[in-house]
## 1
Amino acid sequence: MKNPIATSKEPLIRRRRLCAAMAGLLAPLPTFAQAGNWQVLMNRWKQDQYLNIQGGAVAASQINFTWWSAHWNFQAAMQGAFTRQKRGYFIQNRWKEDHFLYVDGGGLLKAGPIEPGAEAAFWALESAGDNFVRINSHHLADAYLQIDAFGYATVGPSPSGYWSGHWRRYTPPG
C-alpha cells in the first residue's frame, strides 16, 4: 500500500499556502484608504480624459467628479527581495474597493481583485514635470499607463516625451 501522505498533494498545498501567507506578511494586501486619499487621474495629452471604471472596464473618458469609479487611491508598498526592493504603489478604486489596476497575463490593463503582493498590480511613479507623472508597470518592462492613438486606456511603451503617458493626480473638487 502506498503512503497516502507521499502521494497526496495536500503537503504541497499546505506549503504553498504557508508561502503565500509568509509573502502576505512581507507584502500585505493594501488596506482600504482613509477618507481624503482619493484622487483623479487626468491625462496630459487629452486633458478632458480621466481614468475610470464607470463602464466596467478601465477607460479614459470625460467624467463627473462625483463618480467614485474615477477616484483612485495610491497605496504605498515595497516589492521585491529585501536587497533589491522597489518603492511603488497599488492603485485602488473607490467605487469597487476590492478593484486595483493591474496588467493581465496578456499585457492588458484591467481593474479587479488581486492577490496579496501581486506584481501585476504594482506600479512605480516617475516625474514627467509640471506636476505630471508617468505610471510604470512593474510587471512589464518599459510599459506605462497611457492613452493610445484610438483613445483607449492601455499599458505599453511610451517615450518620456509623449504626453499620452503623462498623468496628473489631484483631489477631485467637492
## 2
Amino acid sequence: MNNRLNIQQSFLNKRERHIIEMEIKKATRSDVRRISYLIQKNTEKVEENNYSDEQKRAWKKSNTSKAIEKSLKHRIIFCGFIQNKLVGTIGLQKNEIVGLYVSYSKRGLGIGWKLLNYLEDYVRSRNMKYLILNSTPSAIKFYKQNGYEVLGSNIIKIIGVNFEETKMKKELMCVSPKIIKNRVVEK
C-alpha cells in the first residue's frame, strides 16, 4: 500500500509542476458560450472515440450554449482558466461526473487532472463517498490512472443516438476539512 501511495504522490507532484497558474471557478451564465465552443471544437478534433458523423452531430447539438445554460439549473460546472482563457471544464450532477473537457491544444499538460482533483475535493467537502461517470473510449486510461474502476459497458442515448461508454466509479477517501477548505474555493 505504501508503494502505491508513493507512486501516486510522485505522479501528483509531477503533474502539479506543469500547471501552476490555472484558476478554477464555478461556471456562470456568462461562461456558457465559451464552454459550448470548447466542447464543439473538441468534438471535431477527438478522433480516438471513433464516433460516427451522426454521433458527433448529436453531441454538438446537446452541447449548445442554450443547452449548457439550461443544464446549470441542475448541475455544477467548474471552469479552468489560464490567463482568462477557458482551457477546461468539468461537470457534476449529484454524484456523477457529467463531462470533463480540456482544450484539445492543451491536452497532456495536467489540466484534466487538476480539474478532476478539484471536483473530487469539492465532492469530499460535501461528504459524498463516491463518484461515478460514463467514460468515452479515449478517456478510460486517464480515469484508471486517477483511481477509477471499470464497472462495465453502458449505452447512453443523446438526442436519440446511442453512444457506447464505460461506466466507472471511484470510492473517495475522507480528507481533513481543513485541507479541503484550502483547495476548494467557490467564486
